[in-house]
Structure prediction request, 345 residues.
Amino acid sequence: MTLHALKIGPRVSWEDLRWLGNWRKRISPETLLQNAQVAHTLIEAGKQRVHAIAANEKFEFERTEGQLILVNNEARLIQLRDKLTTLKSWGVVASEISPEDVQKFEPGFNAPATLHRAIHIPEDEVGNCRQFALGVKKALQAMDVQFHFDTTVANIQSALKPRIYIRGSTQFHEFDHVVVCTGTRTHTLTQSFKIPMPMASIASYSLTARVKEEINAPRSALHDAHHHTSIVRMGKRIRVSCGAELGTVLSSRNAGTTRHLYRVLQEMFPGGADYSGSVQVWKGTMAVTADGLPIIGPSSQNGVWLNLGHGPNGWGMACGSAMCIAAAIGGRSSIVDLKKVSPLR
Ligand SMILES: Cc1cc2nc3c(=O)[nH]c(=O)nc-3n(C[C@H](O)[C@H](O)[C@H](O)COP(=O)(O)OP(=O)(O)OC[C@H]3O[C@@H](n4cnc5c(N)ncnc54)[C@H](O)[C@@H]3O)c2cc1C
Prediction:
């Protein structure tokens, strides 16, 4: 997510503005590079872990391989080339292709006249996180892990061991360790930790429609770098997403953003999606930190850990972040330097 794509709404708070001030603060190029490498490691290690879990537990989930980044002008391409050089030095396979070549990977794609070049990243992946989560849940239930859905944690207190208080009950449950991963709804649980949580709740949109004609539909993922819009294929459906709003409510949708989702899909993949009745438009929030890295590590309370603030990459970083929190709790070395993602950084 880039800042110039961020819309500021009428409900913006002082906390949001403080976060925005920190976001705008210049981070040195070295720190930016280090942070990008941490994020890359979380995503790459997580990807391998996702594959290993699905293979070990013998479940399948919808997934495709390959992403195209669409670039509208030479200036943007030059900026991206710099990033690409860095990515390649980390082992990412990527190549620049012409607008005509895009159709070799995406036969249903209708290239806009403005398309200048595209970057093809064959090993990027799209995966259905809901199906993966259901597969993991089933495997864990077989190991006697208990899940309590529709249950609100009202409070967490820690003496020798952390205790969880459930809303509507005076009883508590005691554990050796508790990991708080409450997304954007974090404040009530973490205010007693006395650690500043430099996260903002940013809203974004997605549109999901059924595939109408296979031949006209996307095969994997495309990201339009100019409009900050992604189109991905998920099984028999197509999902388009875009938008970044600070200080807006979920019940109020921006009509322009919604129109944009429909227009981009129709223009880039005409005849690919079925708009008759099955379309879902969703506005959701994500917790975004000012430096773009998640918050993973110990809180100020004994045995209470935090795993928050993954921004637009929560699914991409999910297993990598889980590996970090497991390493931190177990006192083992981690896939990334835990100081970079520490709540106290
Ligand atoms: C439109 C849109 C598109 C996105 N696309 C992508 C994408 O393509 N790839 C990607 O990697 N990421 C994407 N993201 C980001 C991703 O959705 C988030 O980063 C991810 O959901 C964060 O996961 P989480 O589990 O940390 O938090 P959440 O998904 O927010 O889950 C937190 C959970 O905690 C529960 N909770 C909160 N408080 C309590 C409490 N007190 N007691 C009990 N439970 C509580 C909530 O009910 C919720 O179920 C997208 C986000 C949006 C909005």
Observations:
- The mean pLDDT is 93.
- The radius of gyration is 21 Å.
- Residues 152-153, 181-185, 189, 204-206, 241, 284-286, 310-316 surround flavin-adenine dinucleotide (CB under 6 Å).
- The chain has nine helices and 16 strands.
